[in-house]
Design a protein that fits this description.
InterPro entries: DHC (IPR026983), Dynein_heavy_linker (IPR013602). The chain is mainly α and 965 residues long. It has a five-stranded antiparallel sheet. Helix 19 crosses helix 21. The protein is elongated and about 190 Å long. It starts with a helix and ends with a helix. The relative contact order is 0.04.
């Protein structure tokens, strides 16, 4: 508070002096006096403990200097020491850094050990560099001691510097103990108001200020004068154990009288206080009180979200933080400044002109006013509140996010999750902060939020609010409206490079960077489930079907799927906590379990369909047996075939029953898995089991039906026999009439009718064979077919004559009508010869039938008449005839038109080429000669080209040889 410095009171100065004499402060000698250069750490400065003891005694250092009294509580009125000596040790006397140099390890040194009666030789065991405590072990015993540095002497140290170090610590301890005793004495003196301000001073202060300010002034006034009185008494009585501390302020104020002196001096003191203190008006005090209230409200603000009922995703946490920080920044940048300015304006405007006139318009006056100091005081308070807010908020923010999981900090980039998936070795002491969902990707498992964004986002959230807090305006521009201020006057905030912020940012960043290693390792463990996750159920079932597995193998597959599903239920958790992350594994777990269930259901369905097909096949076999037995017989042969089949039906039924029993075993597999069959499959199964009895019962009915059908077919046989005899008589009469026809112009019609009659004859012969088989089945006499065989033999030559003639005429039409290029001369020659020979072979058969013999000779003559055409056709199909030769032929024979090998032979016959055979032969011979001459010319050109080519090749080889040389 500013009035501490304005009043010539002993308390502030005494507190400063006591602070210098406390354990946190040690009087320091100049660096040059303390510095000790050690060039050789193996040098022995002191021979033994006695020599060191004598050096210390020369500097008035005894064993009692190192020990503290034990037992009863220390009396502050006594001269005994009550503070430990190592509290005042000056570390600047240390000759080396134990963290940098390891020369002290296992070194032999001198130490003073309890009960502090002698120096002993010890071995150094360990060092606590932070506290400067050393662990030593007695050379003659195995007991370890933990002693401060002042109790330990290294052989290479300068013993006199070591003595100076202890002397400095003893003096500092005496100063601190003396100050504590003095303050204790002053505090517990009962004055009964003897050192209080006088009535006139009291009334004057109360008239100008408030009771609160007077109480503060009274307390400071009494403490100051009590200190003066006690100090004066101690200086007069040199036998007192307590000595007055050397406080410059007390020395300077010794001339100020106590309560019994004149009031003028007191008025002078009050006037001095009034001129220097800021609290000379109650409105100033209340203004500072309101400022303090506003600052305390700021200190209690929450800049970050540091509490949640349950973990939330990073995106949601970032949005909530943004909303919170925007709200808080709006309060800090607007509300806080406005409310503070309002309180100051309301209270300071009551004072009016003077040191706190807020309407001052001149800078020179403002700079020397108390108002300037007051605003600076408020500025420092606001900056202190803002700094406390940021430090507390960032500490709370980091403490909330870094939820005390020490195992995270020990994880490295080579960490692998070797344990089970349920128990987490990274369970934090406090609840997890962030919510993640583990999902399965095409390449690898991934989290709903990329873990790499945590180390980027969380420090950025903290840095953003730190940056924004650098733009909170001061109250001067809004309070002092008659003065002009710069626009960039902001409260000093905590910087991004502040050591505490850097440390917290580093801790946050390290924690979340380390947390990525187990997080990725945990997700990597789920790669083994990727194949299952993306398994296509239809393709899986198709693979099983294509493998053509047996039912027992499918049973093993189903059992495997059930075991794997149960394994998933016991090995994959619903959720797991890894450091600051609460990971929801339930969707992935349910998807994997659901996939196992789907695969199990698909296999059960496939097995059900397989059994349905097998059962349907068995039922189909039973139905086929029934249909075969129950066929309506169309003949007696059919009845005997059914009877022969029915003899094997019991054996077939037995085999089908065996098949059904094996299928029932497979149905038991489904029952073992508690799989309910569809109604249709259940009905089909029991129908298959009931079919054997139905089939055997049906056999009895069929046999009874066949007895009646045999009588019916016997009657039908008699009618068929009569009709067959009539058909033979009819065709015999017709053939007899037909063979009297001899018209060669109707060769096509005759060949068609002959073929029809021949077919009819064969059909009657086949029908006769069928009738005879039936006669045998009816146990009746066979029907004679000799007349049919004789009729067929007699009609055969007649059929061959007319069919052969018709076939030849069709061939001749194709030879003449088709283009000459497509006519096969060998085929023509072969067809002519075969037809001619076949017709010649028929001549002896028709010697006794002159009319048919004439017809045969006619067709022989037609065949022989076509033979001369072969020579013309062979010449015209010469491959060497070109357009010029065809033109020459047309010109010499007198054909008006273009001829070629693509023209039909009928064109050449129309133009009488048969009469110009020699002309055609001459043109063909000439074409062949020209072709021979052309080929000889081509051969000569090829020979010359080859010679030239060989010459060029030889010349190139000779050039190559010259180049090589």
């Amino acid at each position: 508070m500013p009035w501490h410095t304005s009043l010539p009171d002993v308390e502030p100065n005494t507190s400063k002096e006591l602070l210098k004499q406390s354990s946190n402060y040690t009087p320091r000698a100049p660096k040059s006096e303390k510095y000790q250069f050690i060039s050789n750490f193996t040098l022995q400065r002191v021979a033994d403990a006695n020599e060191l003891d004598s050096i210390l005694k020369e500097n008035e250092i005894y064993y009692s200097s190192f020990c503290l009294p034990t037992g009863a509580q220390i009396d502050l009125n006594s001269s005994e020491h009550f503070l430990p000596l190592d509290m005042f040790d000056d570390w600047e006397y240390d000759t080396f850094n134990p963290e940098a140099l390891t020369i002290w390890k296992n070194m032999e040194a001198l130490a003073i050990l309890p009960p502090y009666t002698d120096w002993h030789r010890v071995l150094i065991v360990n060092c606590e560099a932070e506290t400067n405590y050393w662990e030593v072990m007695g050379k003659d015993s195995s007991t370890n001691y933990r002693i401060p540095r002042l109790h330990l002497y290294f052989p290479f140290e300068d013993p006199y510097k070591f003595a100076d170090r202890i002397v400095a610590a003893v003096k500092a301890r005496e100063t601190a103990e003396n100050a504590i005793r003095f303050r204790f004495l002053c505090k517990h003196i009962a004055t009964d108001g003897g050192f209080a301000p006088g009535r006139q001073l009291q009334q004057s202060i109360l008239r100008r200020t408030s009771v609160e300010i007077y109480d503060i002034f009274k307390n400071l006034y009494e403490r100051y004068h009590i200190a003066l009185a006690v100090g004066r008494h101690l200086n007069l009585d040199s036998s007192a154990a307590i000595k007055q501390p050397s406080v410059s302020c007390l020395d300077s104020m010794k001339t100020i009288p106590s309560v019994g002196h004149s009031s003028g001096s007191i008025e002078l003191l009050v006037d001095c206080f009034r001129r220097r203190t800021l609290l000379c008006d109650r409105n100033v005090f209340h203004a500072l009180r309101f400022v303090n209230q506003e600052c305390e409200m700021v200190r209690r603000l929450l800049l970050f979200i540091v509490a949640n009922e349950k973990p939330i995703p990073l995106e949601e946490y970032e949005k909530l933080n943004l909303t919170q920080t925007n709200k808080m920044m709006k309060y800090l940048q607007n509300t806080w400044i406005e409310r503070t300015t309002m309180h100051l304006h309301r209270l300071l405007s009551r004072i009016g002109d003077g040191n706190f006139n807020i309407c001052v318009s001149k800078w020179k006056i403002y700079l020397v006013m108390k108002l300037k100091r007051l605003i600076e005081q408020i500025l420092y308070r606001m900056q202190d509140a803002l700094r406390d807010l940021l430090l507390d908020s960032t500490a709370t923010y980091v403490n909330y996010l870094v939820n005390d999981c020490n195992a995270i900090l020990s994880a490295g980039d080579d960490y692998s999750w070797d344990g089970n998936l349920i128990d987490s070795p990274f369970e934090p002491k406090r609840p997890a902060v962030f919510y993640l969902t583990l999902e399965m990707g095409q390449e690898s498992p991934y989290y709903s939020t990329d873990p790499d964004t945590f180390p980027e986002t969380l420090p950025r959230i903290m840095d953003d609010i730190l940056k924004e807090c650098h733009f909170i305006h001061t109250i001067e521009p809004s309070l002092m409206q008659h003065l002009i201020f710069a626009e960039n006057l902001f409260l000093s905030s905590v910087g991004l490079l502040d050591p505490s912020i850097v440390k917290r940012r580093a801790a946050l960043l390290e924690y979340y960077q380390k947390s990525l290693f187990p997080l990725r390792a945990y997700a990597k463990r789920y790669v083994e489930y990727k194949e299952l996750f993306f398994t296509n159920v239809k393709e899986f079932v198709e693979q099983i079907k294509n493998a053509d597995k047996s039912s027992s193998e499918i049973k093993e597959d189903i059992a495997l799927q059930i075991r794997m599903r149960e394994n998933l239920e016991h090995t994959v958790p619903l959720c797991i906590v890894i450091g600051p992350y609460w990971i929801n594994v339930q969707p992935l777990r349910e998807a994997l379990i659901r996939k196992r269930l789907e695969l199990t259901a698909a296999l059960l369905k496939m097995l059900t369909e397989k059994l349905r097909i097998k059962t349907a096949d068995v039922i189909g076999c039973y139905n086929a047996i029934n249909e075969r037995m129950c066929e309506k017989p169309v003949s007696i042969e059919h009845i005997y075939d059914i009877r022969a089949y029915m003899e094997d039906v019991p054996e077939l039924v037995t085999r089908l029953e065996d098949r059904m029993r094996s299928i029932l075993y497979e149905y038991e597999i489904l029952e073992g898995f508690l799989h309910n069959l569809p109604d249709a499959d259940f009905e089909q199964k029991w129908n298959a089991l009931a079919y054997p009895r139905l089939v055997l019962k049906q056999m009895v009915s069929v046999k009874e039906f066949h007895e009646s059908e045999v009588d019916r077919f016997r009657k039908q046989q008699f009618a068929d026999e009569a009709a067959f005899t009539a058909s033979i008589e009819d065709i015999n009469a017709y053939i007899s009439r037909f063979t009297t026809l001899y018209d060669v112009s109707k060769v096509s019609e005759m060949s068609v009718e002959v073929r029809r009659l021949w077919k009819t004859l064969h059909e009657l012969i086949d029908q006769g064979h069928i009738m005879n088989r039936r006669q045998e089945l009816f146990e009746m006499a066979p029907i004679s077919l000799n007349n049919l065989f004789e009729l067929r033999n007699n009609f055969k030559a007649y059929r061959e004559l007319w069919t052969m003639a018709a076939d030849y005429l069709k061939l001749e039409e194709t030879w003449i009508g088709n283009p000459l290029a497509s006519v096969d001369l060998e085929g023509v020659r072969r067809g002519l010869q075969q037809t001619h020979d076949s017709l010649k072979d028929l001549l002896p058969l028709f010697r006794d039938q002159p009319q048919l013999l004439a017809v045969l000779e006619h067709f022989v003559t037609v065949v022989e008449a076509f033979r001369p055409n072969l020579d013309i056709m062979e010449l015209l199909k010469c491959p060497y005839l070109e357009a010029i030769h065809w033109g020459q032929l047309a010109k010499e024979i007198g054909v008006k038109g273009k001829l070629s090998v693509d023209v039909g032979f009928d064109v050449f016959l129309e133009h009488g080429f048969r009469d110009h055979l020699e002309t055609v032969r001459r043109v063909v011979v000439k074409a062949e000669q020209l072709r021979l001459q052309q080929e000889e010319r081509w051969a000569e050109e090829e020979r010359i080209r080859q010679i030239e080519e060989d010459y060029r090749r030889a010349r190139a080889e000779r050039r190559q040889k010259r180049t090589d040389i």
